[in-house]
Amino acid sequence: MTVQGKPRKAAVAAWIGSALEYYDFFIYGTAAALVFSKIFFPSSSPATGTLLALATFGVGYLARPVGAFVLGHIGDRFGRKKVLVATLVMMGASTFLVGCLPTYDDVGLLAPVLLVVLRLMQGFSVSGEQAGANSMTLEHAPENRRAYYTSFTLNGTQAGQIIATAIFLPIAALPEEDLLSWGWRVPFWLSIVVAVVGLVIRRTLEETPAFEQEVATNTVAKMPLAVLFREQWRDVLRVVVAAVIASVSTIFTVHALSYAVNTMGLERGPMLWVGVLANVAAVITIPLWGTLSDRVGRKPVFIGGSLGCAVLMFAYLWSISIGNYALIFIVGIVMFGIVHSATSGVWPSFYGEMFTTRVRLSGMAIGTQIGFAIAGFAPTLATALAGTGPGSWLGVSLLTAAFCLVNVAAVATAKETYRVPTEELGRTRQVTV
């Protein structure tokens, strides 16, 4: 394969793998918002059942930091490819088994316990997915197009959400009895196909030149985590704080859907279509934002996207509260499909560029997954703080804006990296722009 072809292959493999991996992850979030409160927590009040169901979505994020430490060490010690293959196998198996679970009516409390166990397995798996794919793609990419190529990892994530939501559209249209008995299981069973296809694709990947150079010169860190926290702990902390921007995604995907359907009584179908169309827009705009950041820098694009989300979440949740479908679609697509995509198009390169090759996967995995763990509980926190009434949209919007401003503060303190040569990343004095 030509040198020019390797970055494309790495980007395509990252896109497909992330799409397949996050298909599994997002069908859980959709099911948690629409179904799980009724089949795993039926003895609770509707409000409590919704809160518990959303908590099972968030609990998967608890396993992410643990998985990040384990998979980060493996990726920096033994190579990126091993992590990318392992994550797909774990995710496919755990998701398929969710579709096989008995319900609360079948086995009582054992049902939600098993659900939580499998959710923890999902979280452990996904902890190494994006960091591994981003490291693989960044280290194959030309220096002046690192954001463009790494953006395909997040582009694939959005595609996975499109597939997951699209599959749930006909499922959600089933009669209530069929939906709760067998319909919700079908998307989870399809994950076996996801696992097989993803495994075939990722086994063809080549290890990155940067990691191979470390192996050839015998400079691979035997204890990457020790090196990471001795030399670059500040960058890890910065990524942790910046990564809470993912709360916009979890609020949009899980809380807003539950608020619209369970609180405001809006139809499931149109609300699912908002997610589909917003993610279609994101698939288009994410690489465009990545290209822009290759030209003007990571920080201006990232900060602009974060501030835009802080404002637009107010408009989106308010439009749900008044039941205006046209406004819901317009604001939802603009906020999540265009503005939020500015952050998604930049962070895969920006976070990875903070670290040296020796600790890149560990640094990205640990930093992002701790931040994502906070974001994973954002829907639960929003529901707990703001309540479940029609007027709760304001409190949730304020909470989301606070997360966005925290992200802006972290990104503003980072050093600009878009012009730094790949071999000098993480070990040079970069110019702040």
Give an overview in words:
The protein is mainly α and 433 residues long. The chain has a single domain (5-424), classed as Growth Hormone, Chain: A. It is built from 22 helices and no strands. It has helices at 5-34, 36-39, 46-59, 63-78, 80-98, 104-107, 110-126, 129-140, 146-172, 176-181, 186-189, 191-202, 209-216, 224-231, 233-242, 247-263, 268-296, 298-321, 325-352, 360-376, 378-386, 393-413. Helix 1 (5-34) runs antiparallel to helix 3 and helix 1 packs parallel to helix 5 (80-98). It is globular. The protein starts with a helix and ends in a 20-residue tail after the last helix. Mean pLDDT is 87; it is low at 429-433.
